# Entry
Amino acid sequence: MNDTVQALTAQDDQGALPLTGPTRAGEEDLWRSTRAVRGDVTIRYRVPAASKDAPHFGPITYLQDSGAGLSGAFESFLLRPISDAPVDVALRWHLAPGEQAVTSVGIGDLRQKARLSDLGGAMFVAG
# Structure
């Protein structure tokens, strides 16, 4: 599958955060900053969708092509801090005119305070 983190960058109030990783910890891949973090952190990355494979039963949780869009669960590509404290979450879909995104937590863009682990199992379809 192609659903692997690419072009990962992180930035805080002091600028670019140098990262090392990933290292494997159980089921998780971990990236770490080589310096102390100051203030808010913005993380950007890309995860190409896996192409369709053989049909199977039940929900498909990994990020995959779905018709003319995408589907999966956030846990398949969401990078999150080790801490499970509630954070401000903003999800903005960048879709072509006429396309829509639907998740198990709502329709369209999302802005809420949440524990990222609670969003991990949320399913979505967009396109």
